[in-house]
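Record 1 of the preview.
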Amino acid sequence: MNTDALPVGTVVENHGALFDVLIDGRVVKCSLRGRLKPARPGKDKRRQVAPIAAGDRVEVALLDDGRGVIERVLPRESDLSRRAAGSEPLQHTLVANVDQAVIVFAVAEPRCDFYMLDRFLVAAVAGGLERIICFNKCDLVPPEQRDAQFGLYAGIGFHVLCTSAHSGEGVEALREAMQDRRSVICGPSGVGKSSLLNAIAPGLRLRIGDVGDVTHKGRHTTSSITLVELPCGGWVADTPGLRQLGFWEAEQEHIAAAFPELQPHLGRCHFSNCSHRDDPGCALSAAVEAGEISVRRVKSYVQIMGGAR
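->
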């Protein structure tokens, strides 16, 4: 074992007990020393589903046979995490140390769940990530219908792209948005995340799946999370489709930041404990009646705030 220095590498794939770590341009198969946990300044060390995620920066002790042992996980600058299913609170980090989340939803097949989209926006804010909303399969919906149903987010000020892996619409714009950045592609199953990445970088040859005719929900084709280099520059992690997204450490300010159009009205209700439902003097209800904000987004905000308390 080389103990003179500990080189720093990036985890590009988690195989459970083994990790692929990129060190100086080569991938080293590594095991984990003890029960390491990534240090997060200011955060208590609660239990996690896995101590290391793709994107983590690690110090590695190199062995004589070319393998390595991860000795230390460096503090994360950002992450996309969720609360794992189960009664005990467990953090499941999908990817660490990326710059932006490309949140992909389909305009059709499967139908867009806007409430789920808002939850992805909150999770990205909580993890310190920039947000790009990508409405895929735009070739399935006429432009006027697309604008009426999905134009709200662009009007609010979110970075929105309309794409079609089939027709090529918006693919170049997405490629430019991901160039020289570290990105994570996330969203439900069946929305075309892997198809979009194949369109951006055909050499990746990621597996794609179909959408169920009855449930209109996608089938999982991405089973693990791998950080891969893009030919245009930058890196990307393709995540499995998620049907549920429980929050991990989503504070009230994170939720509010995902609803920027509501912020001018928050704190202006007649009652400080306003539920923003049928309460008299509700500033959000008044803004909805005036046509200033969307009633659906208000309902989404109320739902997420209720679950976060």
